[in-house]
Amino acid sequence: MRAWELLLEDEAPAPKKVGREFNHLEDLVFTEASGATKAIKILKDLASPAKKIAIKWDGNPTVYWGRDEDGTFRMVGKNNWGREEGKSSSPEELKQFINSRGKGEEWRAKFAGDMAAMWPVFEKATPADFRGYVYGDILFHPGKPYEGADGKINFTPNQTTYSVKGTSNEGRKLAKAKVAVAAHQVFEYFGDKSGKPFTDPGIFSGNPELAVYGQTYVSHRPAVNADNIDRIAALAKNQSAINKFLTPVPGMGYLQTEIYTFVNNQAKAKQLDNISSDAFLKFVAKNPTKATKIQAHSESHPGVLDNLFELVREIMAAKNEVIAELDAAEGDITATTGGKPGGEGYVSGDDSVKLVPRDRWTPFRAD
User: Fold this and answer.
1) pLDDT at residue 18 in the model
2) What is the mean pLDDT of the chain?
3) What is the pLDDT of residue 17?
4) Assigned domain for 43 exists
5) 8 and 147 share a domain?
6) CA-CA distance, 14 to 33, in Å (whole number)?
7) 247 within some domain
8) Residue 226 CB neighbours (<10 A)
9) What's the order of all strands across the beta sheet hosting 346-348?
10) Total domain count, the chain
């Protein structure tokens, strides 16, 4: 048994839950007990044929669609979800609601029209006996359709351009569609906040004008020959001390959240080479009271904060090697961002983690 496998047997206090449903692989260090050794295991398992790695679609805008208990079809945008005044029951109501929000932005009228134009496509595809709602991100639509060139179907919903071979099964499916959506979760009722993973795109196959994707898996298995796996395993021996450091103490229950926010901030600022204890303490200095408490707490746990951020950097480096190999693999669906190979990244759904290339990816919303 390898050293990194033995580490999985260690028990340590679990940090409180922070972040999102799917966290970045490197964030496991400070979001889960034994997070570092779990990250190693995930990296190792990615080479297994049984492991499912899915494309992390970069869709836009967000849409919720489905039927109430009485069968009434509804479709809303992100800002409508859960709002009674935005509970649209017709494309006209949806358009009116969107136009009534904001401050008269130039883009709003087009957005309202685009959303309303998608309504009949979604309604026709949603079976009369379907109950509940689906949440997803739009990949293309009549207001921003796909383009065909060189035997491929190309679309750019947000920052990433996807190219699908026209002769592939996915290409033939998309060629017939007016709207494509990457669906993520299903909800029992309008405004429900406890969604479950969406797993059955076939439900909406009755209308070829709508192409619905659930998890879209890649066929290539990365070799995962990261040179620093043993280095990560050695550092992971500090996980118990990291968990003790993160365990909330009276008057300082925000430490874990501050670390999470700091790492995200460094990613957005393109400062990934500067994820360190010194940079973190400068980051929290904006709040002198918090900074003083965190500084004292760090001094009472010497070296732990340094080890934590070193683990984050090392796991990120290993993850980036995996992403680069997946991006280079030729498949039916390829992606480019800013003219360079690769998209928003990948998802290891069984582990609830995302493999996002933070060095090139700048999200429009908190990620």
Assistant:
1) 72
2) 90
3) 62
4) yes
5) no
6) 4
7) yes
8) 21
9) 23-24, 353-355, 346-348, 54-55
10) 2
Residues 69 and 45 in one domain: no
Residues 208 and 69 in one domain: yes
122: nearest Cα among 232, 1, 210: 210
Q: What whole-number percentage of the chain has pLDDT above 90?
A: 74
CA 98 to chain CA mean position, Å: 25
- Higher-confidence residue: 7 or 16? 16
What is d(CA 140, CA 143) in angstroms, rounded to the nearest whole number? 8
Looking at residues 212-236, what average pLDDT do you find? 86
Alpha helices in the chain (DSSP H): 3-7, 28-31, 35-45, 91-100, 106-125, 169-175, 229-235, 239-246, 255-268, 277-284, 288-299, 304-328
Residue 360, domain member (yes or no): no
Domain boundary among 184, 213, 242: 213
Helices 35-45 and 304-328 cross at an angle (nearest 10°) of 20
Cis peptide upstream of residue 61 (ω within 30 degrees of 0): yes
Q: Per-residue confidence at 95, pLDDT binned at 50, 70, 90?
A: very high
First to last CA, the chain: 36
Domain that holds residue 316: 3-54+221-355
Q: Do 49 and 105 have their domain in common?
A: no
Query: 225 with 347, same domain?
Result: yes
> Is residue 364 in some structural domain?
no
Helices (H) and strands (E) in the chain — how many of each? 12, 15
What share of the chain has pLDDT > 70, as a percent? 93
